[in-house]
Write the structure tokens for this entry.
Amino acid sequence: MPAYQFILNGQTVSVEASADLPLLWALRDQLGVTGPKYGCGVGVCGACTSHLEGEAFRPCIQPIGGVAGTRVTTIEGLGGEGLHPVQQAWIDEDVAQCGFCQPGQIMAAVALLRKNLDPSDADIDAAMSDNVCRCGTYVRIRAAIKRAAHALREAGRAP
């Protein structure tokens, strides 16, 4: 079986797997990275949202063969030594209810703020529309994104 090497949360990893194995299974089952959740397996719910080369993507539909030599970031690698401003805003706004979808929500929010540090409600709704929250915490999600955007602008930095 071939080995696929990529950078996961800043560390080089190697996984032996079939090229068509969904990355989500390699992350969770072989590498012990459980932040990206299995929700639908077809890329529509957003529970597994992570970043590939800094862009939001769905590891449940991304074959591991397609990430060789790339940078993959999951919720575990987002904050570095501390909390990322988006994670802190999630806490401050008390966003999570059941929490299942929140890693994917946070990763989608970070991807939005990398491109737009002053998003309107419509921008947020559009960027987050593919991430489903069964508990319906969308109002708090929007508030947390605005809080994080404000904090990032105040700090003079992009996420």
In short: The chain has a mean pLDDT of 95. The domain at 85-155 is CATH 1.10.150.120 (DNA polymerase; domain 1). The chain has two domains: 3-77, 85-155.
